[in-house]
Protein 1
Amino acid sequence: MENNSNWYIKEIGGDKYVYHCFSFKPEIQEHSFIGNEFIGMDPSETTDHQNIMDRVIEAGKEGFLPNLLGELKEVIGENNYEYDGYEISEEEYSHYFLIKASIYKNVLSKIKLWREFKEFNELMYWDEKEVLE
């Protein structure tokens, strides 16, 4: 029987990556654009919640909270991740990444510092995975 205890470890191009989810309470919307800068700025269109979400979905896998996503990517560092998309529910919003296993713990340390700096401690959370060196 196959051991699935490390289901979150993936190999890409010879490097090991950790599948990781950063989750946010919905209140994060008060601190970041929900979609691109034009959503809600066209007075000829209604901007009800469903209309906004439809437009975010149409924007593609990087269309939800793109400014926040851009900051996360910057903190993680170019060439250190693969972005896998987002998930939206009434309780939380999540962004999914594959982060290089060799720097996973360092990346999470940087994200913790960034979260404190942005004052997102009450809005952002995640489960840290165990990664054997």
Protein 2
Amino acid sequence: MTKHIYNKRLDINTRKIENEKRDEIHKSNSELENGKNTNNRREENIIMKYLDDKKSSKEYYKLLITTESLSKI
């Protein structure tokens, strides 16, 4: 019984952390779109892909694309 409660707490804490990360990413994306968070040297676009399979395991993938790396291509 105690193990079940402990696992439930871990799951709730994990979800809180994932939600905070997601909110932070969405905030930075909206700032980039509005032009508030632009930097002359480096501008980052964060692309997040959220995967959820049947086992309810959640993974986030972030891809940072910098204008510096794009200008070199």
